[in-house]
Protein backbone atom coordinates (compact mmCIF):
# COMPACT_ATOMS: atom_id res chain seq x y z
CA UNK A 1 0.00 0.00 0.00
CA UNK A 2 2.91 2.34 0.74
CA UNK A 3 4.34 4.66 -1.89
CA UNK A 4 8.11 4.47 -2.34
CA UNK A 5 9.40 7.94 -3.09
CA UNK A 6 12.89 6.61 -3.80
CA UNK A 7 11.43 5.30 -7.06
CA UNK A 8 10.46 7.59 -9.94
CA UNK A 9 6.69 8.11 -10.19
CA UNK A 10 4.84 6.84 -13.25
CA UNK A 11 3.77 9.52 -15.71
CA UNK A 12 0.24 8.18 -15.35
CA UNK A 13 -0.61 7.82 -11.65
CA UNK A 14 -3.22 5.18 -12.47
CA UNK A 15 -0.29 2.78 -12.79
CA UNK A 16 0.23 3.02 -9.01
CA UNK A 17 -2.89 0.92 -8.44
CA UNK A 18 -3.34 -2.83 -9.04
CA UNK A 19 -6.85 -2.23 -10.40
CA UNK A 20 -7.94 0.04 -13.28
CA UNK A 21 -8.78 3.59 -12.17
CA UNK A 22 -9.91 6.53 -14.28
CA UNK A 23 -8.80 9.40 -12.05
CA UNK A 24 -6.55 9.95 -9.02
CA UNK A 25 -7.24 12.07 -5.92
CA UNK A 26 -5.04 13.06 -2.98
CA UNK A 27 -6.18 13.48 0.62
CA UNK A 28 -3.65 15.48 2.64
CA UNK A 29 -3.80 14.47 6.30
CA UNK A 30 -6.54 11.83 6.41
CA UNK A 31 -6.60 11.49 10.21
CA UNK A 32 -8.64 8.44 11.16
CA UNK A 33 -9.23 7.65 7.45
CA UNK A 34 -13.04 7.66 7.66
CA UNK A 35 -13.44 9.96 4.67
CA UNK A 36 -10.71 8.23 2.66
CA UNK A 37 -12.26 4.80 3.14
CA UNK A 38 -15.79 6.07 2.41
CA UNK A 39 -14.74 7.67 -0.87
CA UNK A 40 -12.70 4.67 -1.96
CA UNK A 41 -15.59 2.30 -1.29
CA UNK A 42 -18.17 4.38 -3.16
CA UNK A 43 -15.80 5.14 -6.08
CA UNK A 44 -13.87 2.00 -7.06
CA UNK A 45 -13.01 3.63 -10.39
CA UNK A 46 -11.05 6.39 -8.61
CA UNK A 47 -7.56 5.89 -7.21
CA UNK A 48 -6.93 7.56 -3.85
CA UNK A 49 -3.59 8.56 -2.38
CA UNK A 50 -3.83 9.18 1.35
CA UNK A 51 -1.10 11.10 3.17
CA UNK A 52 -0.88 10.99 6.97
CA UNK A 53 2.29 11.40 9.07
CA UNK A 54 0.90 9.87 12.27
CA UNK A 55 1.15 6.11 12.74
CA UNK A 56 -2.22 5.87 14.51
CA UNK A 57 -3.97 7.11 11.37
CA UNK A 58 -1.94 4.83 9.12
CA UNK A 59 -2.80 1.80 11.27
CA UNK A 60 -6.52 2.62 11.15
CA UNK A 61 -6.37 3.08 7.38
CA UNK A 62 -4.52 -0.20 6.77
CA UNK A 63 -6.97 -2.07 9.00
CA UNK A 64 -9.98 -0.64 7.13
CA UNK A 65 -8.42 -1.17 3.72
CA UNK A 66 -7.82 -4.83 4.50
CA UNK A 67 -11.25 -5.23 6.08
CA UNK A 68 -12.99 -3.96 2.96
CA UNK A 69 -10.56 -5.46 0.45
CA UNK A 70 -9.87 -2.09 -1.17
CA UNK A 71 -7.37 -2.00 -4.03
CA UNK A 72 -7.75 1.65 -5.03
CA UNK A 73 -5.81 3.25 -2.15
CA UNK A 74 -2.10 3.97 -1.75
CA UNK A 75 -0.64 5.49 1.40
CA UNK A 76 2.22 7.81 2.32
CA UNK A 77 3.28 8.28 5.95
CA UNK A 78 5.51 11.34 5.84
CA UNK A 79 5.38 15.05 5.03
CA UNK A 80 2.85 15.90 2.32
CA UNK A 81 5.26 18.43 0.83
CA UNK A 82 7.65 15.62 -0.10
CA UNK A 83 4.82 13.68 -1.73
CA UNK A 84 3.62 16.69 -3.70
CA UNK A 85 7.15 17.33 -4.97
CA UNK A 86 7.41 13.68 -6.06
CA UNK A 87 4.17 13.62 -8.01
CA UNK A 88 4.37 14.44 -11.74
CA UNK A 89 3.11 17.84 -12.82
CA UNK A 90 -0.61 17.97 -13.70
CA UNK A 91 -1.17 14.40 -12.51
CA UNK A 92 -3.93 14.77 -9.90
CA UNK A 93 -7.65 15.13 -10.58
CA UNK A 94 -8.38 16.49 -7.09
CA UNK A 95 -6.63 17.34 -3.83
CA UNK A 96 -8.23 18.11 -0.51
CA UNK A 97 -7.63 18.83 3.17
CA UNK A 98 -10.39 18.14 5.65
CA UNK A 99 -10.24 19.64 9.13
CA UNK A 100 -6.44 19.96 9.27
CA UNK A 101 -4.59 20.96 12.42
CA UNK A 102 -5.55 24.64 12.75
CA UNK A 103 -2.63 25.70 14.97
CA UNK A 104 -5.08 28.11 16.66
CA UNK A 105 -2.53 30.22 18.54
CA UNK A 106 -1.41 33.17 16.41
CA UNK A 107 2.25 32.54 17.18
CA UNK A 108 1.87 29.07 15.60
CA UNK A 109 0.06 30.15 12.41
CA UNK A 110 3.31 29.84 10.47
CA UNK A 111 3.03 26.06 10.99
CA UNK A 112 -0.25 25.82 9.06
CA UNK A 113 0.07 23.68 5.96
CA UNK A 114 -1.69 26.24 3.79
CA UNK A 115 0.94 28.71 2.65
CA UNK A 116 2.18 30.00 -0.67
CA UNK A 117 4.89 27.33 -0.97
CA UNK A 118 2.53 24.40 -0.38
CA UNK A 119 -0.19 25.92 -2.54
CA UNK A 120 2.34 26.10 -5.37
CA UNK A 121 3.13 22.44 -4.77
CA UNK A 122 -0.57 21.54 -4.92
CA UNK A 123 -1.10 23.67 -8.02
CA UNK A 124 1.82 22.01 -9.82
CA UNK A 125 0.45 18.53 -9.14
CA UNK A 126 -3.18 19.35 -10.06
CA UNK A 127 -4.47 19.22 -13.59
CA UNK A 128 -5.75 22.60 -14.85
CA UNK A 129 -9.43 23.08 -14.02
CA UNK A 130 -9.38 20.52 -11.20
CA UNK A 131 -10.35 21.16 -7.59
CA UNK A 132 -8.51 21.81 -4.37
CA UNK A 133 -10.94 21.46 -1.47
CA UNK A 134 -10.50 22.67 2.09
CA UNK A 135 -12.78 22.17 5.12
CA UNK A 136 -12.41 23.55 8.63
CA UNK A 137 -14.48 24.62 11.62
CA UNK A 138 -11.91 27.22 12.74
CA UNK A 139 -12.87 30.63 11.39
CA UNK A 140 -9.33 32.01 11.49
CA UNK A 141 -8.06 29.09 9.41
CA UNK A 142 -10.94 29.41 6.94
CA UNK A 143 -10.14 33.11 6.52
CA UNK A 144 -6.42 32.30 6.31
CA UNK A 145 -6.96 29.71 3.56
CA UNK A 146 -9.33 31.90 1.60
CA UNK A 147 -6.87 34.79 1.73
CA UNK A 148 -3.87 32.68 0.72
CA UNK A 149 -5.68 30.93 -2.14
CA UNK A 150 -7.16 34.13 -3.54
CA UNK A 151 -3.68 35.68 -3.52
CA UNK A 152 -2.15 32.68 -5.27
CA UNK A 153 -2.01 33.03 -9.08
CA UNK A 154 -2.90 29.38 -9.69
CA UNK A 155 -6.22 29.26 -7.84
CA UNK A 156 -9.71 30.63 -8.41
CA UNK A 157 -12.40 30.48 -5.72
CA UNK A 158 -15.25 28.43 -7.15
CA UNK A 159 -17.93 29.19 -4.54
CA UNK A 160 -20.53 31.65 -5.81
CA UNK A 161 -22.66 32.16 -2.70
CA UNK A 162 -22.63 31.62 1.05
CA UNK A 163 -24.68 28.47 0.55
CA UNK A 164 -21.78 26.94 -1.39
CA UNK A 165 -19.20 27.29 1.37
CA UNK A 166 -21.67 26.45 4.13
CA UNK A 167 -22.76 23.21 2.46
CA UNK A 168 -20.64 20.04 2.44
CA UNK A 169 -19.79 18.45 -0.89
CA UNK A 170 -22.03 15.81 -2.47
CA UNK A 171 -22.50 12.61 -0.45
CA UNK A 172 -20.40 14.00 2.39
CA UNK A 173 -19.73 11.34 5.07
CA UNK A 174 -18.30 13.75 7.61
CA UNK A 175 -15.21 13.19 9.73
CA UNK A 176 -14.66 12.56 13.43
CA UNK A 177 -13.12 16.02 13.72
CA UNK A 178 -16.26 17.52 12.24
CA UNK A 179 -18.45 15.63 14.67
CA UNK A 180 -16.31 16.90 17.54
CA UNK A 181 -16.69 20.46 16.24
CA UNK A 182 -20.48 20.09 16.11
CA UNK A 183 -20.54 18.79 19.69
CA UNK A 184 -18.58 21.87 20.73
CA UNK A 185 -20.89 24.24 18.88
CA UNK A 186 -18.75 25.00 15.82
CA UNK A 187 -19.80 24.63 12.19
CA UNK A 188 -17.78 23.58 9.20
CA UNK A 189 -16.91 25.66 6.16
CA UNK A 190 -16.25 24.02 2.82
CA UNK A 191 -14.09 25.93 0.34
CA UNK A 192 -13.55 24.89 -3.27
CA UNK A 193 -10.82 26.30 -5.48
CA UNK A 194 -10.09 25.57 -9.13
CA UNK A 195 -6.63 25.17 -10.56
CA UNK A 196 -6.50 27.96 -13.13
CA UNK A 197 -5.76 26.95 -16.70
CA UNK A 198 -3.34 29.86 -16.89
CA UNK A 199 -1.49 31.44 -14.00
CA UNK A 200 -3.05 34.76 -13.06
CA UNK A 201 -0.71 37.73 -12.95
Automatic annotation (TrEMBL):
It is an enzyme of class 2 (transferase). S-adenosyl-L-methionine binds at residues 27, 52, 79, 101. It catalyses: guanosine(46) in tRNA + S-adenosyl-L-methionine = N(7)-methylguanosine(46) in tRNA + S-adenosyl-L-homocysteine. It comes from the Bacteria. Its EC number is 2.1.1.33. Keywords: Methyltransferase, S-adenosyl-L-methionine, Transferase, tRNA processing. It holds the Pfam family Methyltransf_4. The keyword tRNA processing applies. Pathway: tRNA modification; N(7)-methylguanine-tRNA biosynthesis. Substrate binds at residues 105, 137, 175-178. Catalyzes the formation of N(7)-methylguanine at position 46 (m7G46) in tRNA. PANTHER family: 3-DEOXY-D-MANNO-OCTULOSONIC-ACID TRANSFERASE/TRNA GUANINE-N 7 - -METHYLTRANSFERASE (PTHR23417), PENTACOTRIPEPTIDE-REPEAT REGION OF PRORP DOMAIN-CONTAINING PROTEIN (PTHR23417:SF14). HAMAP family: tRNA_methyltr_TrmB. Belongs to the class I-like SAM-binding methyltransferase superfamily. TrmB family. This is tRNA (guanine-N(7)-)-methyltransferase. It comes from Pseudovibrio japonicus.
Amino acid sequence: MALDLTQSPPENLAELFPVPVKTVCLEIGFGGSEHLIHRARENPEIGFIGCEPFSSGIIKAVTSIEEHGLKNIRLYDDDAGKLLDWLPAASLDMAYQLYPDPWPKKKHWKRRFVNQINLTRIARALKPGCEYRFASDIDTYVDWTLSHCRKHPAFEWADESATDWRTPWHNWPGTRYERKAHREGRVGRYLTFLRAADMKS
